[in-house]
């Protein structure tokens, strides 16, 4: 059994190392905008760019993180060069030098377009700048990350009931439409934003172990236990009002499994032994609840609406990436081989259905009938190199440590 497991891990590590190279090559070769600088805002499945598409802060922050992390992982100077390009573009076009924070989007020439302050986007910028500082040693990147963190605590943090409010106008006033996207509920506090604020803070804490930041991470972890994790269903509740009243019963399988390993990473980053054990104990039930969203081919479905008993039969690229890491992490916690086998079977699904073996990168997703989801981005406001490159790097690191 030991030899069999070792063989599985060796094969998985080799395949994911190759895939990491493929992902980064696509983004380095296809996405730079050589006319207007930065990176194209939209590229379709045929690798054709929409030259005048808006450029999103989430996309650019995720490009910055991915290439800085890939450099930290491999030492390849080409990755650092692309990361530097992303850093310079974010600094020149997305960061609001007057009011603080980052714009949601700019036009294709880099002029401010949607100037709202979405906390989710700022969290990813903190995440990316922290990683870039680790890669480059550029102090200005670290300082920008610290400044953005302090701004979030000042402008977005609920000092009475804890948690972070979703979004604001350019000058940090209340805004009517708080949503990240049209599919989201228009509520003041969301699990998704809090998960990635936590992720950004973890990365910042690694380069700046500030006591106040540590307390914010501790509070965020408690928010998950107090509000986001439904102890009855072992799924995560997604949308809340400002008083922490749940406003939706929608289940997001990808976020469920993603949270299991990100929460553990946070507790480990601050060295909280009690919280580490607490998260390990809840991670297995959450993973088991997520298994209900697996199809027989190893792919993980997108969402489920309990009230209507409606399964949204789509298999998105990012959900598969998080399933790979999340079930691998569950195997490490529980020691049960079935979780490793789920992660490997999910990767097999990705290889056969999600990878574009001709033109590179991962397709957006697969429909319930097995066909490709049409008219979706290969690169865009939401389609980024972060989930899949991170999954590769995370599992490679874990196998190496084993």
State the gist of this model.
With 402 residues, this protein is mostly helical. The chain is built from 12 helices and 12 strands.
Write the layout of secondary structure elements.
Layout: H1 2-30, E1 55-56, H2 57-74, H3 77-94, E2 105-106, E3 112-114, E4 117-118, H4 119-136, H5 139-155, E5 167-168, E6 189-190, H6 191-207, H7 211-228, E7 239-240, E8 251-252, H8 253-269, H9 273-291, E9 303-305, E10 310-312, E11 314-316, H10 317-334, H11 337-354, E12 365-367, H12 386-401
Antiparallel strand pairs: 1-2, 2-3, 4-5, 6-7, 8-9, 9-10, 11-12
Helix pairs in contact: 1-12, 2-3, 2-4, 2-12, 3-4, 4-5, 4-6, 6-7, 6-8, 8-9, 8-10, 9-10, 10-11, 10-12
Give a description of the structure.
- By secondary structure, this protein is mainly alpha-helical.
- It has a single domain, classed as Glycosyltransferase, CATH 1.50.10.
- Helices cover 55% and strands 7% of the residues.
- The protein has 12 helices and 12 strands.
- It has a 3-stranded antiparallel β-sheet.
- Strand 9 and strand 10 (310-312) form a beta hairpin.
- Helix 2 packs antiparallel against helix 3, helix 8 runs antiparallel to helix 9 (273-291) and helix 10 (317-334) runs antiparallel to helix 11 (337-354).
- The two termini are 15 Å apart.
How many individual domains? 1
Main beta-sheet strand count, sense and barrel state: 3 strands, antiparallel
CATH topology: Glycosyltransferase
- Give me the side-by-side strand order of the main sheet: 1-2-3
From the N-terminal CA to the C-terminal CA, the straight-line distance is 15 Å
> What shape does the CA trace take?
globular
Question: Radius of gyration, rounded?
Answer: 20 Å
* Structural class estimated from helices and strands: mainly alpha
CATH class: Mainly Alpha
**Percent of residues in beta strands:** 5-15%
Number of helices: 12
Residues in helices, as a percent range: 55-70%
How many beta-strand runs?
12
